[in-house]
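Cross-posted from the bioinformatics board.
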Amino acid sequence: MSAVEIRGLSKRFGERLALDSISLEVQRGESVLLMGPNGAGKTTLLRCVVGMLSFEGEVRVMGLDVKREGKEVRRIIGYVPQQVRFPEDVTVYELVDFVSDVKGVDVDLEEVLGPFGLIDAAHNKVGSLSGGMRQRLAIALSLIGDPQLVLMDEPFSNLDAMSRNSVQEMMRGLMRRGKTLLVSVHTVSGLIHAFDKVAVLRDGRLVGLFRSEDVLRALRPVYRVHIRDGSGWTTYRTEDLFGTLSSLQSSGHDLREVWVEEPDVEELLRAMGG
Amino acid sequence: MRSAVFLLLKRDIAGSLRSRWLLGFVFSFAAMGASFAYLGALGLSQVGFRAYSAAVAGIINLNLYVVPLAAVVSSSLSLVSERERGTMEFLLSLPIAKWELVLSRLCAGVLSLTAAIAMGYGLASWALWLFLSETDLWVYLSMLWASVLLAFSFAGIGTLISSLTRSRFAALALALGAWIGLVMVYEVVLMAAVILLGLDASTVIALMVLNPVQASRLMMVQSVDPTMSFLGEFGVLLIRELGGYLQPVLVASQLAVGLVCTLLALISFERAEL
């Protein structure tokens, strides 16, 4: 049984066709990166899979029909929205408590927040958290209930290079544990190296589903990592973004002082015939 | 596992308790309740509430202004605020059905208002206990019950408005429009229709009862003056036409308005996109 099975998925917003007859299958334990420029339909696709939007066609998650069993689908998956907006006047602890109650699971606060460096903020109001902390909280909340499928919509937005590095480490950890990942990004992020497949979207249509090795071979992405030190900015060119970030961190550099230039997603589209 | 409605209700009521508006309403209802007690004790009427004085009529009218306004305004913001703040996506990404969200919001609104009304009147009840008879206390409780029913009707109207609108401004404008229409304009239009169109008695009664404000007013008047003689010929007509069915009809009318609006809100919210 596939983790996600999409057949003939179309979605209209008034006159605008946001998704046009998309068919895609994600196997259990597989990690798929959903790539495309802004407005390609990535967020809409993920929202349909989660059952938050009505649509034409068929979407099954772990064998469950999203249209009829949307609530059950959302119980067994984890979802990180693109714009992370939580109620501001509750504490992090209250939010964790609420999500675990709704999902019907018991959780250990340390286990949920610890890996994301949020345990000290457990009793802070959500409204007082920085953008990066909220993003990490969103990911932490999505993992409550140990979901087999995790969907993330632009998980790197609002994150500095250090947090990006820890999030991609976390994703690798999930992959090692056999979880299925469907993650959308609008830049050719260094995640390609870690993922099994890349699904390329453009103008609401699926350009193709490619193996990551093929994408890397065709695109040969080069990242430019700019790091500020005492004497100014130093630039490193690399094909392995997160490998470079990890080695910079282990050599004592502060990754908060890093700026990463990624290849334009149009390059990917050209390379893959989109 | 606890139901999502219960968990949302718990969260929404906690939110209401944190807000200052509830406290404001508690004091406004306490002031109204104390006025009832004071006027009764002063002997503006020689036998407590049962003799209907102009002062008590004024307080009933004030109640008929404040309760609908509080209910329709607070509930009209209940769904649209989540949508505008962007927290709706977070809630709908959890195993929560849309109908559960609508019902929890409505129930939280009605319960919070009921608590405010009960606490407000409760603050003054000790005075009633000291100065008034058991019968007057019963009248007082009838007024409270009528206020809660009225709050339910207008919370239903407000929830419908909230499910239909995309911004808080539009929701507030519609809520105020509905309040002005039903509390102020309706009666004037009805009187004009009676004069200009020469409506027959049963049509006038039906049109009066259809408006929850008028139904509540009649409930309150009858709790003070069971013969409805205060309303003159119209009161006599009401008793003659409906007799013992008057109270059930008035209750049913207010419940029907609340329930029909809630049902329409459920349908509209189910169809709405994020």
